[in-house]
Amino acid sequence: MTAHAPRGADAPPELVQLLTPEGERVEHPDYDIELTAEEVRSLYRDLVLVRRIDLEAVALQRQGELGLWASLLGQEAAQVGSGRALTGADMAFPTYREHGVAWCRDVDPVNLLALFRGVNNGGWNPAEHNFHLYTIVIGSQTLHAVGYAMGVQRDGGESAAIVYFGDGATSQGDVNESFIWASVFNAPVVFFCQNNQWAISEPLEKQSKIPLYKRASGFGFPGIRVDGNDVFACLAVTRRALRNAREGQGPTLIEAFTYRMGAHTTSDDPTRYRLANELEAWKLKDPIERVKAYLFKNQLADQEFFEKVDAEADALGKDVRDRCLALPDPPPGAIFDHVYAGAHALLDEEREQYLTYLAGFER
Amino acid sequence: MTTLTLAKALNEGLRRSMEDDPKVLLMGEDVGKLGGVFRVTDGLQKDFGEDRVIDTPLAESGIIGTAIGLALRGYRPICEIQFDGFVFPAADQIITQLAKMPLRSLGTLKLPVVVRIPCGGGIGAVEHHSESPEVYFTHTAGLRVVACSNPADAYTMIQDAVRCDDPIIFFEPKRRYWDKAEVDLADPGLPLDRARVVRPGRDVTLVAYGPMVKTCLEAASAAEEDGRDIEVIDLRSLNPLDAEVLTESVTRTGRCVVVHEAPVFTGFGAEIAARVTERCFYHLEAPVLRVGGFSTPYPPSRLEEHYLPDLDRVLDAVDRSFAY
């Protein structure tokens, strides 16, 4: 074992892979997946549309329409693969970058943009989509997922929770506490760590001296590393972990080995801390290109299909853009809404005073 | 009427809450077989089982974080933080998640989580076991913060807190846990967000909450011998604050002294002083005075009698108020 987990494409680590970067199907002794042509085309469509939403959001930020955006570029397969492994009853707890999982949970992308536009702090109903709100404080949501899973246990439910976090988050106390809780309570939860190699500017070796998936054994549950740019493998591995959780076999840590091809957020400048050749190496492992190559090679899709998906992506991008720009600013009184579920005398007083003050300008 | 200690009144209130609603859970360190280090949860695991009275790993952030998850699944968790000084590892989950998630969801999520914290000094404890961290939480929008001072309130307030759909920080005065009083188990008590005049008086208003209510009542009795008629208000709720009761009282008495164990500097008394001054300016005969801890960390227990406001320091402040 090397002291540092490799980041480049030249040193492939031990991981589950079912589709090579060249689009070749490969066998794995423990994991396999049977997918119809229709299912593969559907995954490809997800990947392309999710990337298109992301590109549109980056563009909107550059044009001053969003305050910030956290791009998922390069992580589409990890998110779509795991997202499509979920059943409707499973509950997902995202960070702030899980736009691909949100897509799989039928959350309107405009709701994601509204958060980054500053219209609200999360405008979707988590219970409606079984997709929790974005969590910005790193790792906090891992404990929420475990608590939720403990609730499923108490309900005698047959669903699982999945929680997303990054390589940097594995250094957080909350993530480690969530591992302990999940282990001792045998909670039906899947820890899905997207190791995209970079926590803003800090490489993985600033977070861990062992591969992240190996952490799980110290907590008493299985850990597995999957090629995070392989949508087939991510789907297969997550499906198995979720099934194990639902069947009472407790938690699993999945480390999806992937790469953040863009900046941490639109405020970041990765040229200050990483070399361009690293990005070039990972471009060869692009999560979308390999599925396209697989569909082509196996004659599971024709040119017309790819053109149709591209056209759909363009239409989606335009729709997202138009509806984002049409988002109304909330009225000033909205500051006071939903802070408390019940009546709150102090807040009522402040609301009345401020709205009266504002009204003074209209006379 | 039943005679109960404050700890037992809380225990009875928790029991009633758990009987009333199967979604109510208790969780914390040593709350199960041991019944909590102060025995507030004594016997509840035996009667309600390990799934509802959960002995947790020793990690406060984990307690609050998983309670949030349980609440998202429809449960109503009551978390016990073993001592005031140990709430800080959970501060992030309380402040960034518990307090803000309902707003973040535009009201689609409710987090009916109660965080019970034994607070305050006076028990000869070691460091971190005698603190009064209330203003860290009153300053955090989204939380309700309450403090009980006597067995009857403890019994009803804990039940009201569990029924409330907002997250609540529930302070329990640990040195009063063993104080006994008559409790009418059929009396629903005051609404949770209301203050109470616990002793009416004409000359000066003493404002307190939690452990200092008893100290103020003792001071008021002592002052009676000097011919001073002191009114004592038990705030009960710190956020929201029942400004009406305060205003009505100080408008009548013209003098106000706030008493708490926490340091005076930027303590809760500062908020009371500001509000009372804004609302009662033309009725005040003296500035609002504050009695509390010093701007020091809580001292070793052999010094705590100097740090904690007592009857004499309260009466000294009353004298100073009358000196204006």
From TrEMBL, chain B:
CC cofactor: thiamine diphosphate
Key words, A-Z: Oxidoreductase, Thiamine pyrophosphate
Keyword Oxidoreductase: yes
Domain named Transketolase-like pyrimidine-binding: residues: 4-179
A Pfam family matched in the record: Transket_pyr
Keyword Lipid metabolism on entry: no
Designated name of the protein: Alpha-ketoacid dehydrogenase subunit beta
Natural source organism: Microbispora triticiradicis
